[in-house]
């Protein structure tokens, strides 16, 4: 949940976000759209903990089994947020799928010691994105466009995030890979809370539970997509 968030980059006089509030229920799919330069990426960066709001709050409200809100709400910690930026494959750094996945994981003397839980999480992430069976020795750069996106997703999903954020997940893919990613997101939506920034409203609208338009000047308003009537 985001409540009354304002953001002015340090050393500047202009608010890029102006009183942004919205809530996304657990295991639902939210979509933010709007003109280029309106502030969508800025908002994602705050949600991922890459910058801090000037004022306002970002938190998670969890509920008990009886459906009562847990008190107090928890802060959304960056380690619990998975974010896949636009064109994630451009930032692949390793020569093998295994090294790409474990890049940045704590290394121990004598090499990488994968904790049992992480291996289980990774296997689950691979299942979720349909990458099970892939050779871990394969060069990630040699994968097809759609499979590169699957790998980028699996890397984030291995941490089992409370919130998965995707910035333009269909950008730069051919029609077949786009359809594959849409199908995959439909499947992931059953397990995860997903927030997407995209201009591809038509292809994603069947998945959307809530949607918002970012207006120029960083003002967010709830909107229904034309064909779903969903707000
Ligand atoms: N650190 C900064 N200092 C000053 N202005 C900034 C800073 N970061 C972004 N901006 C400006 O804030 C505005 C919003 O940028 P942002 O990237 O969030 O927009 P966007 O909606 O994601 O655009 P796009 O759809 O093109 O990705 C833009 O005018 C951008 O130039």
TrEMBL record:
Record keyword Nucleotide-binding present: yes
Domain ABC transporter, chain residue ranges per copy: 2-231
Cellular component per GO, a single term: membrane
Any one GO MF annotation of this record: ATP hydrolysis activity
This protein's UniProt keywords: ATP-binding, Nucleotide-binding, Transport
Pfam families documented for this protein: ABC_tran
Database matches in PROSITE patterns: ABC_TRANSPORTER_2
Name of the protein described by the UniProt record: ABC transporter-like protein
Organism lineage: Eukaryota, Viridiplantae, Streptophyta, Embryophyta, Tracheophyta
């Amino acid at each position: 949940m985001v409540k009354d968030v304002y953001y002015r980059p340090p050393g500047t006089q202009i608010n890029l976000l102006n009183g942004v509030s919205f809530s996304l229920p657990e295991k639902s799919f939210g979509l933010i759209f709007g003109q280029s330069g309106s502030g969508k990426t800025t908002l994602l960066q705050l949600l991922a903990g890459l910058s801090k709001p000037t004022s306002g709050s970002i938190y998670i409200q969890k509920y008990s089994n009886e459906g009562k809100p847990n008190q107090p709400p928890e802060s959304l910690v960056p380690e619990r947020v998975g974010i896949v930026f636009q064109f994630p494959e451009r930032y692949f750094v390793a020569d093998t799928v295994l090294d790409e996945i474990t890049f940045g994981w704590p290394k121990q003397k004598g090499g990488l010691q994968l904790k049992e839980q992480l291996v289980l999480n990774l296997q689950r992430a691979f299942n979720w994105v349909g990458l099970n069976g892939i050779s871990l020795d394969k060069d990630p750069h040699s994968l097809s466009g759609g499979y590169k996106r699957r790998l980028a997703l699996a890397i984030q999903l291995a941490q089992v995030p409370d919130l998965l954020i995707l910035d333009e997940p269909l950008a730069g893919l051919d029609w077949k890979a786009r359809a594959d990613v849409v199908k995959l997101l439909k499947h992931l939506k059953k397990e995860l809370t997903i927030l997407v920034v995209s201009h591809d409203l038509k292809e994603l609208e069947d998945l959307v539970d809530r949607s918002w338009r970012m207006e120029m000047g960083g003002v967010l308003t709830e909107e229904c997509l034309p064909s779903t009537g969903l707000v």
